[in-house]
Specification:
heterodimer; A: alpha+beta; Flavocytochrome C3, Chain A, domain 1; 8-stranded mixed sheet; 28% helix; B: alpha+beta; 36% strand
């Protein structure tokens, strides 16, 4: 914690630390209520993790659902949230979230020009089994014209390496999902890339950055990491950032919003909080847990939700692939396609590979006799049927795999021996799986059960879009490693106004946390696509309102 | 197909520039993203670069085969990916500074030259700038020379149109940097050194 400087370099009412959805929403809302705002971003580009992600916003019973002819209700929404939370939520935070998310999402549309588009037909993760589940609850954005960002065009995320640029959600599903990626219209995407048309997370943040930095003229700085909060008698009154190699003190008369994401790129925190021996990340390398350090110095409470159910994946790094100067780790979605399974070192399957909400807790399974996580590392196994049809990361059919990444063999036994997997059991596993897979069935783990997994990662030309036998040599194997997606189990404990709570149970005056910097206590143990973005918008909206009300 | 071309001029004579350009070991490290190269014969070499697609960077290994060696005017080559499905071609052109830009490409027919001009025009439209020539502050005069570098890369696979578009901005910068660094070195402005993307 820094002492008050002799002179402030900049004086504003509100400082937003971080330029993702939460920070920018808070900035817009506070600005619109008459506050002078400054956004400080550590990365060289604005947009945060939100600008790098899929850009889905979960909006049950939202006004756009009528456009696609889907009925919904608040009662169903709450029932589904309670199902997701599994009792690990704080009900008062869930109540506030449910009461506020539509107003927040609508505000960005009516006041900030965000063009929301409903994603027709896309079901909830647990649809139709879970109480209150439905389809058509996701919003995405219409294509955004990056040229409208002016000086911020080159200082904002234009696309993510994890999905083809300039592809809308509707197109992704209409074109057959990830299982049909080789057949997408890349001529159209190339034309859009040439015109800087942005989609998904980059498009969504394009709208918000334009609204904040261009239309409203909110002050923003990239490459301006905030190192410390400045507090006086327990009240946060500003920050010490760094700009161009020197301290940059910004006074925040009303408060500071921590919107810096999680700690995916802080190995110590990841090891300490996520209970894994190894941690990699698909995110940009700018998420170091700064919120926990800076707020921790003021006595902030850290809270956790069960890590078994969050957005953690397993995946791989293609040798030589980098982004932002660090290895690029990709989440493995290949196991959602037919002709692909996961096995552990014992040669056994252990989960529904098509549904990451089932594979995550299975991966964390602890064998109390062996004192080990017996399903780690998992191995992605596929055959030539898969190879002929589907990609592995950026390797489309016909491209050679790097041998450092993919092991190849003529028989399952040979593949198992090369990978260090128990060979006899592995052969039995393949034979057993194939017996049912030929009929489109997976009686052991129910792969392909959920419409969401079918639509996102499966091949809809199959009877069971997520299941197909592994019966064509050669066979392939990839050892997978943990890959975080920036949604962590630990965060700052906040109240219903998004204020950061002290360990002694009172809010810390002048300090707010939103997005992935705030513990996910509003949804407890639950997560599904679009809820992170919905949380960020909602709590940013709430924080901006509370700050403007003269907290 | 992604294609780019860049030209720059120097007061140095053609022979001086040729003596440097014709020996790849002298300028290899000036390539943006350079990692390694290995001469395998008089005409063949193996290169490893860190390629830039904007949204990600990827280590690419490719073979280069020299198809035309017409000193001191032109070196043309073809390239083929080792760990990627890609092929391409390129050339260094060296002319007197006051000669027409295509003078060294005497073996190129009029249709090829016309196509090159059309491609350059569309490339300029796409990127909001017409092909640049770094002549500011220079006075080529008699005895000066013009160095041009042209590169065409044609990736394979269904995503090729998208990959092309992602590669183009970095290719233009790489061509500009290579020519600029060579001339700056020869003029004594800077020494060649490892150049990582």
């Amino acid at each position: 914690m820094a002492a008050q400087p002799d002179r402030w370099d900049l004086e504003v009412d509100v400082v937003a630390i971080g330029s993702g959805l939460g920070g920018i929403t808070a900035a817009i809302v506070a600005h619109d209520r008459g506050k002078r705002v400054c956004v400080l971003e550590k990365a060289p580009r604005m947009g945060g993790l939100s600008g790098y992600g899929g850009g889905e916003v979960y909006c049950p019973n939202g006004r756009h659902m009528a456009e696609i002819g889907v009925e919904d209700s608040d009662e169903a929404t709450r029932a589904y949230f309670d199902f997701l939370a599994a009792g690990f939520n704080h009900p008062e935070l869930t109540d506030k979230l449910v009461a506020s998310y539509r107003s927040a999402i609508d505000y960005l549309e009516t006041e900030a020009g965000v063009q929301w588009v409903p994603v027709k037909g896309l079901p909830d993760y647990y649809y139709p089994d879970a109480p209150g589940s439905n389809t058509g609850r996701y919003l995405s954005v219409a294509l955004f014209d990056g040229n409208s960002l002016g000086e911020w065009q080159q200082k904002s995320w234009q696309a993510s390496p994890h999905l083809p640029p300039a592809l809308t959600h509707r197109e992704m599903y209409d074109w057959g999902g990830l299982g049909n990626v080789t057949q997408w219209d890349y001529e159209l995407l190339a034309e859009r890339i040439g015109n800087d048309q942005r989609a998904m997370g980059a498009g969504m943040m394009g709208y918000l950055l334009k609204a904040a930095l261009v239309d409203r003229g909110i002050t923003g700085y990239t490459e301006a990491p905030v190192r410390e909060l400045v507090a006086q008698e327990g009240v946060v009154i500003g920050v010490r950032a760094e700009r161009e190699g020197r301290d940059f003190f910004v006074r925040a008369r009303d408060g500071v919003v921590l919107a810096v994401g999680g700690y995916d790129h802080n190995p110590d925190m990841a090891a300490m909080f996520e209970n894994m021996h190894e941690w990699n990340s698909s995110t940009q390398p700018y998420f170091h847990g700064d919120h926990l350090v800076m707020a921790g110095e003021l006595g902030a409470a850290i809270a956790a939700v069960p890590p078994t159910n969050l957005g953690m994946f397993f995946g791989y790094n293609i040798p030589g692939e980098e982004h932002e100067g660090v290895p690029l780790y990709r989440s493995s979605w290949e196991c959602g396609c037919p002709h692909a399974i996961w096995v552990n070192r014992a040669g056994k399957r252990f989960c529904d590979e098509s549904f990451y909400k089932d594979s995550q807790p299975a991966l964390r399974s602890w064998n109390g006799h062996a004192q080990a996580q017996e399903n780690i590392p998992p191995f992605l196994i596929f055959d030539q049927n898969y190879r002929d049809r589907y990609p592995l990361g950026s390797f489309t059919p016909g491209m050679d795999f790097p041998p450092e990444l993919v092991t190849q063999a003529d028989t399952p036994r040979e593949l198992a021996e090369k990978l260090g997997i128990e060979a006899e059991t592995f052969e039995q596993t393949i034979a057993h799986y194939n017996e049912y897979a030929a009929q489109g069935k997976d009686p052991d783990f129910g792969s392909g059960h959920y419409p969401w997994t079918q639509r996102l990662a499966g091949d809809m030309s199959f009877e069971n879009p997520n299941v197909g036998p592994l019966d064509k040599a050669p066979y392939y194997g990839v050892k997978l490693v943990p890959v975080g997606v920036g949604i962590n189990s630990h965060g700052l404990r906040t109240d219903t106004h998004a204020r950061v709570m002290h360990l002694r149970g009172h809010p810390i005056p002048g300090l707010y946390a939103v997005g992935n910097s705030a513990a996910l206590l509003d949804l407890g143990g639950g997560y599904q696509s679009g809820t992170s973005n919905m949380r960020a918008i909602t709590w940013g909206f709430i924080a901006g309102q509370h700050l403007a009300a003269g907290s | 197909m992604a294609e780019t071309e860049y030209s720059t001029t120097t007061e140095l004579p053609v022979e001086t520039v040729w003596a440097f350009v014709s020996e790849m070991d002298q300028w290899a490290t000036m390539l943006t993203g350079y990692k390694t190269h290995e001469k395998q014969s008089q005409t063949d070499s193996l290169w490893t670069l860190k390629g830039d697609l904007g949204i990600l960077q990827r280590t690419v290994q490719f073979r280069v085969h020299v198809t035309d060696w017409s000193g001191p005017a032109r070196v043309a080559f073809e390239l083929e990916g080792v760990n990627e499905v890609l092929e391409g071609s390129g050339e260094f052109l060296l002319t007197a500074a006051d000669a027409p830009p295509d003078a060294a490409r005497s073996r190129s027919g009029p249709i090829v030259r016309l196509m090159a001009r059309i491609l350059r025009f569309f490339h300029g439209l796409v990127h909001g700038r017409v092909e640049r020539e770094a002549e500011a502050g220079r006075n080529p005069g008699a005895g000066g020379s013009r160095l041009s570098f042209r590169l065409r890369v044609d990736p394979g696979g269904p995503m090729a149109p998208m990959v092309n578009k992602l590669m183009e901005p970095a290719m233009l910068v790489a061509a500009e940097n290579l020519c600029g660094r060579i001339i700056a070195h020869l003029e004594g402005g800077s020494a060649p050194g490892p150049n990582q993307a």
